[in-house]
Amino acid sequence: MKKIVALILSALLIVTLFAGCSDSKKNSTPTRLLMVTGGTSGTYYAYGGVIATTLTEKLSNIEITANTSGASAANARSLKSKEAELAILQNDVLDYAYHGTELLKDDGAMAMLRTIATLYPEVVQVVATKSSGVQSIADLAGKRVCVGDAGSGTEANARQVLAAYGLQFSDLGRVENLSFGDAATAMQNGTLDASFTTAGVPNPAITELNSSTEIVLLPISGAEANKLISDYPFYSKFTISNDDYGVPGVETVAVLATLACTTDLSDDIAYQITKALFDNQSALATAHAKGQLLSLQSAVQGVSIPFHPGAEKYYKEVGAIK
Q1: Cis before residue 219, ω within 30 degrees of 0?
Q2: What is the DSSP-derived secondary structure letter of residue 193?
Q3: What is the SS3 assignment for 251?
């Protein structure tokens, strides 16, 4: 009887020890990471929250919190200042930040920035009212055109697209710096002929405009698109379908929403985050529509700054890059 009791006590002791080890692992201090996203009404914030929640649930001992922010340029600055470890931003703005050009030229080159993955396309959409007679980018000469908010990524896209067609802002009849919504209102009122919008498709402002005003989508294609992509490798080709706005679709270009970090993030954590993104793509797609656009093939496209070594290790393992 004493032997049986001793065996039971020994077994209980072993169970207690294993439980203690498990609890100790569970209660060890996790690595906490802050991800800056965008405004509370935007896609970056909503999708960033889904990524943060999903990866926190799936990764052992890593906690990611998504915070609202001032979007791409502000997010690059947050990475530089070490206020955040992760950020979602447009890959063109990421390129400007890395090289210290365009809207981030006064900040200096941020050589510590690194790419984890591109997430989904943000499409350069050039819309004109049908009454303006504008049918192509070349037709914008002499017209009243909104090129996006001053200092925005859209404004830089507009400048680059126009240059591919041999135009400058000075060739336009009038240049306006307006939000997407304000530009749509001006086009409704007949005080604006066309506008540039860099955003997901369909864009609510364009959809609303189309409900009251006949519009046309202007293509960015052919030799001009090839020149644009050659000059600025962060662009990729994209097709707006007939179904997106109920008007004839066009070929255009897109930049890419990108998950980025800095060289301060350890190789192991960057590897775990990258792997977890793709291991849990179906969960991301269920929680947010943009998760449906995440794929290994597209995640390594449009990248013009270095990958983080941890992310690069994963992509090489799965054959996404050589």
Answers
A1: no
A2: S
A3: strand
